[in-house]
Amino acid sequence: MHLVSHTHWDREWYHTAGRFRQRLVPLIDTLLARPIERATPFLLDGQAILLADFLSVRPDQETALRAHLAAGVLEAGPWYVLADNLIPSGEAVVRNLQAGARLLSHLGAQSPRVAYCPDTFGHPAMLPAIAAEFGFDVAIVWRGVGGASHPARNTMWWSSADGQRVLLHHLPPDGYEVGSALPADVQQSRERWTKLAEHWRTRPGTGVVLLPNGADHHALQHDRDAAVASLAAVARVDAAVVRDSTLLAFAEALVQSARDLPLPTVSGELRDSYGYTWTLQGTFGTRAAQKRTNARLERALLHDVEPWMALAWLHPSRVWSPMTSPHDASSNQPSPQAEADVTDARSALLSHAWEALLRTHPHDTLCGCSTDAVALAMDDRQRAVCDMLPGLRHDALQRALGHDPVAARSQSPLDSPPVMIRNRGARTRGGIAEVRLIETLGDVRVGPGSAGHAMPRAYVAAPTPDIPGVLMQAGRTSLTHARRESPQHYPDDDLVREHRALAWVPPVPAHGVRVMSGEAEAPSQELVAPRPVTMEAHDDVMLLDNGAVRVECSLRGVSMRVGDRTLRHALSLESTTDAGDSYTASLRGAPQALRLVRMTAGARGPLRASVVLRWILDSDAPASLDAKSMRVPSDIGSMTEGGTPRTRRNGGVRVDTELILDAESRLLRCDVRGVNRRRDHRLRLCWHTDVVNDASVPGQIVADAAFGPVQRAPIIATAKAEGIESIPRTMPMHRWITCANPMRGATLLSDGLAEVEPSDGTLSLTLVRAIGELSRGDLPERPGHAGWPCATPRSQSLGAFRARAALLVHEAWSDTTLEQLEEAADAFLLPLRGETWRDYRAGDGGYARSLAGPELIGRGLRASAVSLSADGQALLLRAVNLTERPLHGEWRLPHDGPWHVTRTRLDETALEPARTLASASLTFSASPRAIVTLLVRRV
């Protein structure tokens, strides 16, 4: 038995990060006070951010901290933060491990080679592959394992879909607290040992086990040495050895003990510890808006920042402005050192943005089971990341396109400015682009000289500017301000008219841009006009039709026809009373359907048509609350001074759903805008399909997840499980979820909401989960408190909310269906975007007509990352084989090399010697469900 002293450190939970840091600093100070040769080994919960938190207050302790880390008596990592692992994308999980390694490396240290996940609310199916590709042999988990679907063992193999595996060590039912507060008294030690030994006898493994000595925010046990000696003495009677140890030593011993043993194997997601310990799978809908924002920010970093940094690397600019790099004034060229410094700075800015987002990923934070103060801090961090994105994106595109903002400021804005269309996908595509066109109306002065300066006259009613040779559809027009900025000038502010429009554009290169309008490009001969989409109104019915999909809307409901299939009453919204807390739903009574009360024509084609439907749920009539039914903690504010309950009306709900149909698309999109005034309920958007399926049959429910799809079947309920925690029917949601049978299928797509429930052909997406308590102890679904009792009125999610979803009706599940679905997901989540660059001038005075990035060729492959390597000096290309068969793929670069191409692990460790290729075609093979990472360097 390896006894490892540790603390489990929720960085924020029932207190904020700043409040908990006041306890963290003296905890680590105490550990560092003892000389290394007499120090007790201590684990800082598997996350490196605690080191940065400590040094932010105690920078004078860095030398001592480095020494203790180097000696191995203080352990941290491999994670940057102990994050939720089911909600973030696979790439975000990778970025978490990279950030942890980066911080530890800065302190001259390495982490134990263990995927340490002591309190995560479930684990993704591909975590064994992620762990193995970071060189970890062992994963340690608690929740998510132990239910009826898993063998009753404390150690087993955990394999991922690509065949990689790690040793999985499962903590006892008491989890990471099983060895907390060890008694020094012999009799009490004997009682503790008897309980531990009984558990390990009933759940055997290799004979090597972990005993974590610590608990939430606990410092090193004060009488630890005496308690360990007492436990070792009583364990010796049973010929058991208690060893004072470290996490690294335990992992090495576990791997050695597992050699040649016939251990069982588990695979897939780990979301079932029912009957063993609380799994807490009810958090996916809590504070839903924050989860949606997180998904959108992740997507922006991965697809609208990193690819443009890769594009700039592939197309190094000959133009360098003084503000971006020191350079030789005589040649106007940067020195090699200056170029490297600028690259390092931009890589550091990208890492900074990722780390800011990762600080919102701890499970208590991202899962929404924290106080309102923590949620407000998360909002601030998400806003900070959002503010970073435009600057990172624009800087990379300027470099790639050779635009010098300093030189451009010496000239007036162009009379006919170009429109930059950018393709955030991995394949060349054209069609509908959402564009933002800027029409300059006049200069706006700022400062003392602005007094008396007349504002330019502006007229909102103006036609949308044309892009020559392109079919356009006008949208919203508004007046706003736009600035031309340069590091060597004050901003130049202009009053502008902003036109939001749609354009039918010719193909745009993968991960590339196309410059259109004015002198940039003549009318294209490759552009074929689409069949227009129409919106017709007939009496009390409105029809959307693009030739492939026909949607009929009336106050009686929505029907959808695709080919010979008709979905009647395809859409509804429902509210169900939820008396639960932030961890667990407690649904009461039947769902209430929202009433469809109004229908309004939206866009009318030819590229996009839409109908806006308004749904309402009326306010409840006032009713007296009696003491028995009243939820005392959250309703303290509803008491009179005398302590008697007063009446309160539960508010209503209003939701506008805009059903959107685009030309040449099979997706029916639904943009949601609503206002929630109701407390203690769950609001869902429900798509009713014609797919009658048996969810207990494997393959009938397929869901997008980290690094590829997973098949989901219902978790098996047992009498023991139901007595500890009820099994929710909801599940985590990434980009899409499919219900299918041997004849047909249908898929729901979402832009970031994280909770969904498939039920007999209906796919229900949680829009709002309104609750008011961090934890309640009286729930029939989970008797007992999962956290500290605390009112969280902001988690009632009162006020405005938004969402975006779509439905795709298709054939039965197959590899072809999967490929169509991935294309639809890109069109839905990564549409072509364009905007006016009012002063774009390339260095030689001309335009770059188009600029291509890396393109992925190969059916069944998905681009996971197009970025730069950790050192910023190489192009990183990552693809995932989504199928169960081996595939051959190709990355096509915009120009020939020569290149040094190295296949690596996720941590960028080389798997084979570098190949030198002269071609722009980089071919690779991918075994079933493999993650393939290539690093490309210039020769």
Keywords:
7-stranded beta/alpha barrel, Substrate Binding Domain Of Dnak, Chain:A, Domain 2, 7-stranded mixed β-sheet, globular, 939 residues, Immunoglobulin-like, single chain, alpha+beta, 16 helices
How are the elements arranged and paired?
Blueprint: E1 2-5, H1 17-33, E2 42-43, H2 49-57, H3 62-71, E3 74-75, H4 90-106, E4 114-117, H5 127-132, E5 138-141, E6 155-159, E7 165-170, H6 186-202, E8 210-213, H7 224-236, E9 243-244, H8 247-258, E10 265-267, H9 288-304, H10 306-314, E11 327-328, E12 333-334, H11 336-358, H12 363-366, H13 372-401, H14 405-408, E13 419-422, E14 429-444, E15 471-486, E16 489-508, E17 513-516, E18 534-538, E19 541-545, E20 549-554, E21 557-562, E22 565-567, E23 571-578, E24 587-593, E25 595-604, E26 608-617, E27 653-662, E28 667-676, E29 681-688, E30 701-703, E31 710-711, H15 719-724, E32 731-732, E33 736-740, E34 744-750, E35 755-759, E36 762-770, E37 778-779, E38 782-783, E39 799-811, H16 815-829, E40 832-836, E41 850-851, E42 855-857, E43 861-868, E44 875-881, E45 887-892, E46 899-904, E47 915-917, E48 921-926, E49 931-938
Helix pairs in contact: 1-2, 4-11, 6-7, 9-11, 9-13, 10-13, 11-13
CATH topology of the domain at 2-267: 7-stranded beta/alpha barrel
SS class: alpha+beta
- Note poorly predicted spans: 623-647
Radius of gyration based on Cα positions: 29 Å
What is the C-level CATH assignment of the domain at 2-267? Alpha Beta
* CATH homologous superfamily designation of the domain at 2-267: Glycoside hydrolase 38, N terminal domain
| Major beta sheet summary | 9 strands, antiparallel
Q: Taking all residues together, what is the mean pLDDT? A: 91
Strand content: 25-35%
For the record, the CATH architecture of the domain at 2-267 stands as Alpha-Beta Barrel
Overall 3D form = globular
Number of DSSP E strands: 49
